[in-house]
């Protein structure tokens, strides 16, 4: 029993260390490549003018960076996604209001689709 407890504590310590190093990176960078799109491209690699990646958008929302725009963080964020109270469009609007995305992002169906794809991957 003590062995399982020590293994569990070691796993928690490793996860906390990994999580802390991710948070230490700071703010995400804005991708400023030309507005081109290649099919079958990963969402994180999609170059768009002034867009943050959908992965970074969802990750920052999960961390609570859009609470001022009525997007809750952490467990409430996941619950909101599961129940349909938070949609990709809601999150993109919050990012536009907080100046992290340009206004034309709300009409970009492919970007919204990538954000929705990130939502599906976060629902475990």
Descriptive overview:
The protein has 5 helices and no strands. It is an all-alpha fold. It has one domain. The longest helix has 22 residues. It starts with a helix and ends with a helix.
Total domain count: 1
Average pLDDT figure: 76
Characterize the main sheet. none
Helix content: 40-55%
H/E series: HHHHH
Q: Which overall shape is indicated by the principal axes computed on the Cα atoms? A: globular
Number of strands: 0
Distance between the termini: 28 Å
Topology:
Elements: H1 2-23, H2 54-62, H3 74-83, H4 88-97, H5 109-122
Helix pairs in contact: 2-5
Keywords: Plasmid, Signal
Signal peptide: 1-24
Structure, briefly:
The chain has helices at 2-23, 54-62, 74-83, 88-97, 109-122. With 124 residues, it is mainly alpha-helical. Keywords: Plasmid, Signal.
List keywords for this structure.
124 residues, mainly alpha, 0% strand
């Amino acid at each position: 029993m003590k062995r399982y407890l020590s293994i569990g504590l070691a796993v928690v310590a490793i996860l906390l260390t990994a999580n802390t190093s991710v948070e230490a990176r700071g703010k995400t960078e804005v991708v400023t490549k030309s507005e081109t799109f290649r099919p079958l491209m990963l969402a994180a690699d999609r170059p768009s003018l002034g867009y943050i990646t959908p992965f970074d958008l969802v990750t920052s929302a999960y961390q609570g960076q859009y609470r001022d725009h009525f997007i809750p963080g952490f467990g409430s964020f996941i619950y909101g996604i599961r129940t349909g109270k938070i949609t990709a469009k809601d999150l993109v609007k919050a990012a536009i209001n907080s100046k992290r995305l340009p206004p034309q992002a709300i009409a970009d169906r492919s970007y919204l689709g990538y954000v929705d794809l990130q939502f599906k991957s976060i629902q475990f």
